[in-house]
């Protein structure tokens, strides 16, 4: 008999965070909607784990158990990825501290740092995800994002963790793009994982979610205290939907990775597409570290179609690729990042492969690229 510790991804996803079977009860209990709960008239909040919804919710706790199992740590969920990331940064950093952020990572974190952290007296420095990384002695916290969104460079987490440990620096890894089935940063030496659960983790494009996961008792207490006092919690229904979606994570990611591989090979073979990036392509600069570090490569491919007009023609010609931001959902989507003020080239596209049949997707993309190709090509 195999124990839970030996379970593979699909089995772990299906069972993550579920309560012990009880006759007459559902597999995943429905959402508990409550602001206050009934209290014991004599013993008060000491009598039950549920007193008030900002701190206590059983639906949220089950989701935290599930994500914690997958990441290999203790988890606290937040209302969005940004709530989780900014919560960690604000809870840990103090005036005079220095934080090192990815120069090519999620741009809202950079605008938050420039606007808010700098104003609080925190020194913000940047390093490209692929390195080189500067001396870390005076750095309080390094936030790593690997693979980085949207450029898809990667960083060797274990190698950097050795350096942060030696310097007494906290290492946080944004695991949004990889998901805990792609890599487990806590096992590679990171102190804490932050992520958006809005993307591939939940994968149905119907909710926002974020989380922090750690093995440090102190850090968990700091983050829990921060969340309870600032209140950035997800609602019970979103927490329940997210947990319901986790059961298919392995299946969804497997198809997304297959689709991304086929799409990346298609794009790389075309002369009217440049700058194709997918860490699973052997020619990709991220390939050596990605294949050594990650259990699977995410379903996101980035490339350049030259200009905004070509991107618009491509999207209009495609029947399967929806114009949308975010990524990791069931439906294939493409986002011209420059339209959001991101510092990417005007024709740069981040394509998120959904779970459609691979042959249909490749045929649709081929037709849309042909139909939108510059006249000379
Ligand atoms: C989307 C994203 C975030 C922010 O998450 P939200 O749920 O949208 O707040 C943070 N980091 C990365 C890498 C992301 O892709």
From TrEMBL:
It comes from the Bacteria. Keywords: Lyase, Pyridoxal phosphate. InterPro entries: Cys/Met-Metab_PyrdxlP-dep_enz, PyrdxlP-dep_Trfase, PyrdxlP-dep_Trfase_major, PyrdxlP-dep_Trfase_small. It comes from Micromonospora cathayae. Residues 1-26 are annotated as: Disordered. This is Cystathionine gamma-lyase. Its EC number is 4.4.1.1. Its cofactor is pyridoxal 5'-phosphate. Belongs to the trans-sulfuration enzymes family. Residues 1-12 have a biased composition (Basic and acidic residues). GO terms for molecular function: lyase activity. PANTHER family: CYSTATHIONINE GAMMA-LYASE-RELATED, TRANS-SULFURATION ENZYME FAMILY MEMBER. SUPFAM superfamilies: PLP-dependent transferases.
